[in-house]
Specification:
The protein is of the alpha+beta class. The chain has one domain. The chain has three helices and six strands. Strands 1, 2, 3, 4, 5 and 6 form a six-stranded antiparallel sheet that branches. The longest helix is centred in the C-terminal third of the chain and has 18 residues.
């Protein structure tokens, strides 16, 4: 497993575009996102051409495979849920 190259990131550009839209995330360099002042996610690839993301969910980094469109959609849903869960503007009062 290695950090993703520019060519690897080209393969998941649509996923990167969606992550760039997520409120609260900032892309510090291509494929490396932070949330507030902490690293939040970055990409890896393997020699077989599969893509992975190390993402900080529930306080610890988890490795998630994001090679297929289905895997990417599931990953985005998990990120969006995590961002909503801790975004004070989305919490209900009461």
């Amino acid at each position: 497993m290695r950090h993703a190259t520019q060519g690897d990131l080209d393969q998941v550009e649509a996923l990167l575009a969606e992550l760039r839209k997520a409120p609260g995330l900032r892309e510090r360099k291509r494929g490396c996102f932070s949330r507030e002042s902490r690293a939040f996610l970055h990409f890896h690839a393997d020699d077989a051409g599969d893509s992975y993301v190390d993402v900080r969910l529930d306080g610890a980094f988890q490795r998630v495979r994001v090679t297929s469109l289905e895997e990417q959609a599931d990953f985005l849903a998990r990120v969006q849920k995590a961002l909503q869960h801790t975004d004070p503007t989305t919490r209900s009062v009461g």
